[in-house]
Design goal:
217 residues, four-stranded antiparallel β-sheet, mainly beta
Length: 217
């Protein structure tokens, strides 16, 4: 543990994490997750409610809310080669891990997902993507005890593709769709002149999760 905490915010998201009626911000500062709350008596000021050391490099965070729920979870992409879902515990005043699904090697690697995260706006699924090629989709639901459950990963890999960003598309309660900006470098990799690389363009790609067949197309 360092004596002085990191102050640079690498990623942040907003939601209601401790109380349904409270608007809060979760900020990722390197290896620390902080819960920030606006001060009612001091407009424009934020108070640090909780600060949790995660002992790893946080690459991306997003809020996630199950259908019918009144509070948000935090989904974390990191250098651990896994997707972690955190829930704020008011009694202990810290974020606690609800799920941690491992899918790859540890370390910040271009082929291991963790750099990009996106959630279905209706709270049914999450996509986690790597800088290159690999993407996984997880279906989130409730189990018999009304706690969060997570499915096995569904692959949405595309070779020779560099991903710039991904996001969830609001399609109501139709099959969840995720949009991605991707660059195909297959032709550029095979062209020593560099012309194909200069002409390469970003593509907008939509991935649909078929909830009936349980696959991604």
């Amino acid at each position: 543990l360092t004596l002085q905490k990191a102050s640079s915010i690498s990623s942040a998201c907003a939601g209601s994490f401790s109380d349904p009626k409270t608007q809060e911000i979760v900020a990722a500062k390197g290896k620390i997750i902080e819960l920030l709350r606006p001060l009612a008596d001091r407009p424009g000021s934020l108070a640090v409610v909780s600060s949790t050391e995660v002992f790893g490099s946080i690459r991306s965070i997003i809020p996630f809310r199950l259908p019918g729920a009144n509070k948000d979870y935090v989904v974390v992409g990191s250098d651990a080669g896994s997707i972690a879902i955190l829930e704020y515990n008011m009694q202990r005043n810290e974020f606690q891990r609800v799920h941690n699904e491992v899918f790859g090697k540890s370390g910040i690697r271009r082929l291991v997902p963790g750099q990009h995260l996106a959630a279905d706006p209706k709270g049914r699924a999450v996509m986690i993507g790597a800088v290159e090629k690999q993407k996984f989709v997880y279906v989130l639901n409730r189990d018999a005890s009304n706690t969060l459950s997570i499915s096995s990963p569904l692959e949405a890999h595309k070779p020779n593709k560099i991903t710039s960003c991904i996001c969830g598309v609001d399609v109501g309660f139709e099959n969840p769709i995720f949009a991605a900006l991707e660059l195909d470098y297959a032709e550029a990799d095979a062209d020593p002149s560099g012309k194909a690389g200069d002409e390469a363009q970003l593509e907008l790609v939509f991935y649909e999760l078929d909830l009936g067949l349980n696959n991604v197309v």
